[in-house]
Amino acid sequence: MSDREEAAADDPLAALESFRLADSFLPVGGYTLSYGLEQFVADDRVTGADDLRDLLATYLRNQLGPAELVALRAAHAAAGDGDVDAVCDADRRLTAVTLPAEFRESSRKSGRRLLSLQRELRDDPVLDGYAERVEEGDTACNYAVVLGAATGVAGVDADRACLLCCHGFVTGRLGVAQRLLSLGHTDAQRVLDDLRPVMVEAADDSVGRGLADMTPFSPLVDVLSAEHERADRRLFVS
Amino acid sequence: MAADANADADGPHDTDAAGTDDGATDDADDADTVDVPHPAFEPYARETVPQAAVGSPGKDGRLELRFAATSGGTTLVHDYATVPFHLSGTLDYDPHPDGETVFVQSPTGGVAQGDRHEVTVEVGADAVAHVSTGSSTKVQSMTHNYAGAETTLSVGSGGHLDYAPEPTILHADARYAEEFSLDLAAGASAVVSNVVVPGRLARDERFAFERYLSRTRATGPDGPLFADATHLTPAESDPTAPGVLGEFAVYGAAFVVAPDRDAAALSDTLHDAVAGGADGDARAGATELPNGAGVAVRALADRAETVRAALHAAWDRARRELVGAPAPAGRKY
């Protein structure tokens, strides 16, 4: 860890910022997004806490680690350098490897909410410049990229930002699962606790990858997401 | 052929031109770095091959096909093939009146360690071409190095390409990296499909290969369209995990790339074509590709035939929409 990163990890204000961004209280609409989970429940593939944990582990290992966290790290570094073009590049590349249409839409929706929230709280030239490019329709505004840029400008270090993203993703889906399954609060906490090593694994996996090496791979999730697009009854956007 | 194989693992054709114009931060310019499609293949690339060396004749097969629209329909105007590729002319087989078909054959038993294959297919403006293989590609067991194939496809304005090889079968201990890059001019379209079988299933060989990486990248007149990857390392990461392949063994994907078409409508049409739900059908679905590029179809099943049938159904619908003719029959023998 560099001195700068070490300072960032110790900065109490950055720590508080990371708690705020990881909190399910953060108003980015995650409760409307199941990322295919609704279809896994409808298909009886997820019926309880164990199935849920195993499926969420796949998301962490096969989607977040090899793709979203890679883009997050790139956006984090770019924001630290004040390089809006590089943030947009990470954004466009993440869009290009996110093949399920509902996932792109979900990521864009929550990304836009987070970006506008961050800009309400404080002025920052990188976030403002990026928002301008989003407005121009130049780039999509993926959630992981906004989170990377926001943590980059707030001085939250990149490894922590990756863990924060994993934690936020899992708690968001646990909230969804509680409305789809009979999943008690203790069970939900147990899944979150059990998945800690997988979150660390996903964050580590993203370290050595460049933007050209994003390789998300979970075809059954993609197929069920395609079915969800056409499902007659659905509670969630994705 | 060189018995003493102190191979320069780079081989003679290590150009990195296809699609890695990324300005990414990861390419360290280390003198010791060997040119590999993915860092995971680097340790393999350093291993010498005990038989013919990497890059020696027979190991560096090349295939070049160029199609052009002529007054008599689409014609194969340039072809070049070295072992293990073999061509025996074109076939008058396509239901499209102007379509031209090439089935690439192989006189060898399959893809072996140290092989580096390069395939280039160019479809000129307004030409309609279909390229496939006559039989499955068998990727044989390996103890040294790896095998790689690079396929570069391009389609000129108003042209159409169907690139739909027979399935790839990964034998035990195989290490195989394949890259597909597709570039479309304005008004062009393509269907690119690929099916991977994780072993000789009839002899209960399943997920016994070491590593398989298949990447597909597409660009259009306005830049990158999408990128997809299949990366399987069964010993390290369970391919049958929920959401990955689940209870299925065989996986296939078809990319219907047509940036000038209504992707939303095409996606629904193709989904209807593949989402069977009956016993014996593949589990399959279609979704819109990013950047308005077209539609991705993915299919999973226990048997290669089932996945092929689903992808063929999608291909058939897509072809009717894109070129106004059905897909050719799937059977080749």
Task: Write up this protein.
Chain B: GO terms for molecular function: nickel cation binding. Chain B: One of its GO terms (cellular component) is cytoplasm. Chain B: Required for maturation of urease via the functional incorporation of the urease nickel metallocenter. Chain B: InterPro entries: UreD (IPR002669). Chain B: Residues 23-33 have a biased composition (Acidic residues). The complex is a heterodimer of chains A (238) and B (333). Chain A has helices spanning 3-10, 12-22, 37-42, 49-80, 84-97, 101-121, 125-135, 143-154, 158-180, 185-194, 196-205, 219-229. Chain A is mainly alpha-helical and 238 residues long. Chain A has one domain: Urease accessory protein UreF. In chain A, helix 2 (12-22) runs parallel beside helix 9, helix 4 runs antiparallel to helix 5 and helix 4 crosses helix 8. The mean pLDDT of chain A is 94. By secondary structure, chain B is mostly beta strands. Chain B has helices at 42-45, 263-274, 304-323, and strands spanning 62-70, 73-81, 100-104, 116-123, 128-133, 137-139, 147-155, 160-163, 168-170, 175-184, 189-197, 211-220, 223-232, 250-257, 283-288, 294-301. In chain B, helix 2 packs antiparallel against helix 3 (304-323). The model of chain B is unreliable at 1-31 (pLDDT under 50). Chains A and B meet through helix 4, helix 5, helix 6 and helix 12 of A and strand 13, helix 2, strand 15 and strand 16 of B.
Structural class of chain A: mainly alpha
- Biggest beta sheet summary of chain A: none
Beta-strand content bin of chain A: under 5%
Give, in order, the helices and strands of chain B: HEEEEEEEEEEEEEEHEEH
Provide the gyration radius of chain B in Å.
Answer: 19 Å
Mean pLDDT of chain A: 94
| Intertermini distance of chain B | 34 Å
Total of domains of chain A: 1
GO molecular function (chain B): nickel cation binding
Protein name (chain B): Urease accessory protein UreD
Family (chain B): Belongs to the UreD family.
Subunit structure (chain B): UreD, UreF and UreG form a complex that acts as a GTP-hydrolysis-dependent molecular chaperone, activating the urease apoprotein by helping to assemble the nickel containing metallocenter of UreC. The UreE protein probably delivers the nickel.
